[in-house]
């Protein structure tokens, strides 16, 4: 049964690798945002309020938007992928049941 599921996934290699790539992007963004934010907090505490750089804020905002978009695309693609694999698996089970009878 696991071999059948594995074969179904390997039939759709491109989608599977796209989902994996999106997961890497999502995890990278989730790691970078706290690091940049903690560095920004360190800069705020060390400098006077008039000289606070705004580049980290913009970078955090861009990473957050990128994270939300890639998470949404990952969710939609993975749901479509799961539905296709499940549908093919159900069709195969149905065909096997018809041949039994």
Overview features:
single chain, 3 helices, 0% strand, rod-shaped, 101 residues, mainly alpha
Question: How many extended strands?
Answer: 0
Residue-averaged pLDDT, rounded?
87
- Indicate the low-confidence ranges by residue numbers: none
Alpha-carbon distance between the termini?
21 Å
Multimerization status? single chain
How large a portion of the residues is in β-strands, by DSSP E? under 5%
Sheet of most strands: none
Write down the secondary-structure element order: HHH
Number of helices: 3
Radius of gyration: 22 Å
Descriptive report:
89% of the residues lie in helices and 0% in strands. The chain starts with a helix and ends with a helix. The protein has 101 residues and is an all-alpha fold. The longest helix is centred in the last third of the chain and has 46 residues.
SSE diagram, text form:
Layout: H1 2-11, H2 13-46, H3 55-100
Concise structural overview:
This protein has 101 residues and is mainly alpha-helical.
């Amino acid at each position: 049964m696991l071999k059948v599921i594995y074969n179904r996934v390997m039939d759709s290699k491109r989608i599977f690798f796209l989902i994996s790539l999106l997961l890497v992007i999502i995890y990278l963004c989730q790691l970078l945002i706290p690091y940049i934010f903690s560095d920004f907090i360190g800069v705020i505490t060390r400098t006077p309020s008039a000289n606070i750089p705004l580049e980290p804020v913009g970078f955090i905002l861009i990473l957050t938007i990128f994270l939300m978009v890639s998470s949404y695309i990952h969710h939609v693609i993975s749901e479509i992928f799961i539905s296709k694999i499940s549908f093919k698996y159900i069709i195969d089970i149905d065909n096997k049941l018809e041949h039994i009878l």
